[in-house]
Amino acid sequence: MKFVQIIDFETERLDEMEQLVEEARQGMAAKEGGPTHRILLKDRDTPGRYLALIEFDSYEEAMRNSADPDTSRMAEQMGALCTREPRYVNCDLVESSDL
Predict the structure, then answer these.
(1) Any bridge partners for residue 4, and if so which?
(2) Phi, psi of 95 (to 5 degrees)
(3) Are 38 and 30 in contact (CB under 8 A)?
(4) Which of 43, 74, 82, 87 is geometrically suited to a Cys-Cys bond with 8, CB 3.0 to 4.6 A?
(5) CB under 8 Å to 84, separation ≥6 — which residues?
(6) pLDDT above 80 for 29
(7) Contact 3, 74 (CB under 8 A)
(8) pLDDT tens column, 31-67
(9) Cα separation of 37 and 15, whole Å?
């Protein structure tokens, strides 16, 4: 079953955060497992608040990715760019469709 992690975070330094994500994406390109899809949402009602939806092929793949030292390092760097501690929500993907 596909798995999605939602990261709810606030930052005033989105450009720097996006640069970290791009560097991580390039580093993960040669690795198997990692995220398969990413959606970044901007909260229209709360300035500086974002939701990142990160999709994986399975919960197990997501946990392997989370245990990777490179992922931990990136999360730490991203956390330093946030104005509050990020909140993580772990979800099984029950259904996805285009409407």
Answers:
(1) 55, 91
(2) -155, 140
(3) no
(4) 87
(5) 9, 10
(6) no
(7) no
(8) 777 899 999 999 999 999 999 999 999 999 999 999 9
(9) 20
Confidence (pTM): 0.90
| Token pair in block for residue 18 | 């996006």
Residue 64: its H or E element: helix 59-67
Rounded Cα distance between 37 and 62, Å, is 12
Give the pLDDT mean for 81-98: 95
Number of other CB atoms surrounding residue 99 within 10 Å: 2
The full length of the chain comes to 99
Do the Cβ atoms of 34 and 65 come closer than 8 Å? yes
CA distance 79 to 75: 6
